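Researcher: Quick test of sequence recovery. Tokens follow.
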């Protein structure tokens, strides 16, 4: 699925929840500028430093401006970089008053099932 398709699926899947606002990610959520090794998936020490920087910027600048008190993430058993980021999030966000809520990936399947046929099929590379 394209980014736009995934964003629309999440918006539709949460539209009946009054206190949820879905924001597209990009330069302000996880950015090439603040977290370059996330996208390279190599150097482990740099990953932790960049992840910490990204999370501190999120927790101290972005979350207060948008009144974010809870950050939802999908568990990531297959990507060690994302898994480490999620684990660091579990450590750092609560220290700054933000709850990290993790959900196993099957929740996305429920959304996809609910809106089957509403989006184009995924393209394989």
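Model:
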């Amino acid at each position: 699925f394209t980014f736009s398709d995934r964003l629309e699926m999440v918006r539709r899947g949460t539209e009946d929840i009054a206190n949820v606002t879905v924001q597209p990610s990009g330069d302000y959520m996880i950015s090439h500028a603040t977290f370059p090794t996330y996208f390279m998936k190599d150097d482990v020490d740099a990953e932790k430093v960049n992840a910490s920087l990204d999370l501190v910027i999120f927790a101290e600048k972005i979350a207060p401006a948008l009144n974010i008190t809870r950050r939802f993430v999908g568990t990531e058993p297959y990507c060690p970089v994302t898994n480490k980021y999620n684990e660091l999030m579990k450590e750092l966000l609560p220290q700054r008053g933000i709850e990290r809520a993790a959900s196993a990936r099957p929740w996305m399947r429920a959304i996809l099932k609910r809106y089957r046929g509403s989006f184009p099929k995924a393209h394989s590379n």
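The two ends are 12 Å apart (CA to CA).
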